[in-house]
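Run Transposase Tc1-like domain-containing protein through structure prediction, thanks.
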Amino acid sequence: MILDELEENENPTSETITRGLKRKKVEISSRTVQRRLKEAGYQFSASLSKPLLTTIHKKRHLKWALSMQNQNWDQIVFSDESTIRLGPVKRRQWQLKGFRKVFRTIKYPGKVNVWDCFAPRGFGQILCFSPNLTSKFLCKQIYTKALRH
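Sure, done. The structure for Transposase Tc1-like domain-containing protein is below.
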């Protein structure tokens, strides 16, 4: 019954499994659920986070990379941005040892974005901002500040 409840639950914790069993008139403590899951080979661990890249995205990335093989990379500025999420994002749940569930990530409120670049002449200025990164924001706010030199 515990394993059935585990499979039915999207984000299984011992508490959610215990509540599900209680709805089915089975009285069991969450600690007993934890012990039984460990005996069955499960562990309580974080899901893997993966960006939502589709097959089309991957094909377009590969096509672009192949078309740029002969580019003079000395004339290129490389840039990257990262999002730092405020608050807990990692979800821990019961999973079979050796198998990690994948938690698909989407954009959440409560974040800080960080942007920087580098080129053959050195590094750009690290910029922090909270709005979503759009092409207009990138051109008017970031490129004008970071690429002055």
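The mean pLDDT is 83.
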